Amino acid sequence: KVVTSAQWSPNGRYVVYGTEEEKLYFYDFEERRELNQMNFTKMVTGISWNLNENKLVVTTRAGEIEYISEPIVMITDADAPHITSSRKAFQPIVDDDDDDDDLVDDKMFLDHEADDLGLDDEDDVESIKEERPKSIQRFVPAPIKKIRPFQPNQTPEKDFKLFLDYTTVGMIVKRLESDGTSNIDVLCHDRSAAKPQHFFNNMNFDKGRISEHGSLFSSPPTRSQNDWLIQYKTESVLAIAMDARFCYAGLNDRFVYVFSFGGKFVRKFGIVGDIVSISANNSFLMVVYQKQNSEVLEFTLINMNTKKVLCKQEISNLYELKWIQVTDQGVPCLYNSNGELLLHFGHCGYSPTILFKESTLGPNCFSWPIQVDGKSLKYILCKKNIPFPYPSMTPFMEPVDLIETINFEGDTENNPKLLTDEIFLDELKWRKENCLIDDDEDEIEDLEAIVDKGIIETIQSSMIKNKTKRVLDLCSFLHTEKSFNVACRLAHHYNKAYLIDKINSIKDFKLSQMESSESEDDHEEVNDDEEDELVLVESQKENRKPEVTESQVEPNKNSFVDFLSPQKKRTTLNLEPENSNVIKKTKSQLNPFSSKK
Questions:
Q1: Residue 383 to residue 356: CA distance in whole angstroms
Q2: pLDDT at 573 over 50
Q3: Name one GO cellular component term (predicted).
Q4: Same domain for 106 and 174?
Q5: Shared-domain flag, residues 200 and 57
Q6: Which helix (H) or strand (E) holds 322?
Q7: What residue numbers bound the domain in which 282 lies?
């Protein structure tokens, strides 16, 4: 058979197809059998099912349109074991011309004596009904509910006024007039930082975002052309966000567009679903979208510096999502209609941190979150008689350390925890491979490694808090070249490239002084050995006893104190060393993890 056209049924069970023989066949895909066929005067060229009902339309080569009702006849217990149709063009089902025995199968011969389909008694009737396939039910595909996109921190309209954005920096207020026009006020909480701005909303801005870097607006698509604005004729902006470097716009074409502060297009990337909301902070971008052919929400966290996806996670659809935010450390935060604030901790999943409901605030009062830190949820409280909302705060039951919740999935090179662990791993491997392990020196090296690890962790915390002077002061206490390299990589990870040159200068200065101190230590050790021998001879002469003197035992008992004492000068900076003798560098001195001999 040469098939000219074919079409699936909406429920995915049946297939109807036409052939060059001017016939239309109905096939049950689940039971793998042909149901019936229909004859036409012309070849069938097109078939279309009704999505909600058991009906279809067929077009022929002659341009005729055939309307068929009940193409798949519903079988119930009261029906006979044969299929009929409302169209008279159906051929006999069992004894048709092609002798293909459409509905004849093994299930119809329940009794070996009834070889001609004759029924002996009523019991056979009941048994045939039980063995017959279940009745076919109507399948009506339910439409997938589209989740409405939202802009974080935007409030609903109330008293001809709404807030396009309200953050810890300031607010964007949209005031509606009776004639349908509106005005926009951009206000900062610190009036000395920026002056209030007021302008007429002639572009009908419906979304806004304010931060310490500026304010961002978007409007619905319009037919008018303006050379000074970035416009899309067919797409509409669903959500906007901004960080210290870029502005982001999520459109209904499932793309996120990235722009510079000057309006220059940088890049765009696709999302596998309809965008619901976006949030950006400190080079982290969080995109919430509705999955394809599903009512389930999912979010993706992206590092815009490395352009890598850090994590993907589904969001429960039990409650409606109201607000999202990504913190400075890259921790996704979600707030739903049940008052639950959820923080996503990488592979550990979600952690309900607080339960906060508006019903406890009293009548004529509503609120919305604006910021999450490690100790509390900051939200805005708005009452009926107050012209402007005022901020409030709900503390967490237990403080959350957001620094340790950074998810670096797929980005192990810039993981601060892995970077600090490399100090000890590389050191032990190098010393074991080169057989340079010494008991006393090994204890000293382990002590330096532990100290450097604590310093690196403190440097990481100071970089997050933008304490530049403290970072440089801490770098001066590092011991090895590997530790300085880790500090430089941390500065690159937290977008503080201006610290790398300063850290390198401190490293060069510190390592040069350590080399000069080591050369001075070697010279002092020779003098110490000569002095110890002289003291031993004098003590033997005075006491005439073979016991070991106190001066010999004291350096061994207090070896740890001697290591930290200024006389050794192994880690103490000496700008003007007394001895300038230079010795040749051995293999152990060239490696920062070697045992000093």
A1: 17
A2: no
A3: nuclear replication fork
A4: no
A5: no
A6: strand 321-326
A7: 161-218+235-405
Burial class (CB in 10 A: 0-12, 13-18, 19+), 151: buried
The beta strand positions in 159-305, using DSSP E, are: 161-166, 170-176, 182-188, 197-200, 207-211, 214-218, 237-242, 247-251, 255-259, 265-270, 273-281, 284-291, 297-303
434: CB partners within 8 A, 6+ apart = 587, 588, 591, 594
β pairing state of 297-303 and 376-383:
unpaired
Split into its structural domains, the chain has a count of 3
Q: What is the pTM of this model?
A: 0.46
539 and 434 housed in the same domain: yes
The tens digit of pLDDT for each residue in 224-255 reads 555 556 666 667 899 999 998 899 999 988 89
Asked whether 334 and 342 are in contact (CB, 8 A), the reply is yes
Do 210 and 165 touch, CB atoms closer than 8 A? yes
Mean pLDDT confidence for 566-588: 40
Q: Kindly report the CA angle at 54 between 50 and 56, in degrees rounded to 5?
A: 50
Identify residue 404 by its one-letter amino acid code: E
Task: Please provide residue 339's backbone torsions phi and psi, each rounded to the nearest 5 degrees.
Answer: 85, 15
Is residue 137 included in any domain, yes or no? no
Assess whether 285 and 204 both reside in one domain: yes
In a domain, 105, yes or no: yes
Highest mean pLDDT among 75-79, 92-96, 355-359: 355-359
* Domain presence at residue 556: yes
Q: Residue 300: which CATH number?
A: 2.40.128.630
- What's the pLDDT at 288? 95
Where is the domain boundary, 116, 131, 146?
131
Q: In this structure, what are the phi and psi dihedrals at residue 152, rounded to the nearest 5 degrees?
A: -60, 145
With respect to residue 155, please indicate whether it lies within any of the assigned structural domains.
Answer: no
As beta bridge partners, residue 59 has 46, 65
Q: Show contacts of 299-304: CB within 8 Å, 24+ apart.
A: 299/324, 299/332, 299/334, 299/344, 300/271, 301/326, 301/330, 301/332, 301/407, 303/330, 303/411, 304/243, 304/245, 304/246, 304/258, 304/280
pLDDT computed for residue 183 by the predictor:
92
Q: Which of 370, 405, 440 is the last residue of a domain?
A: 405
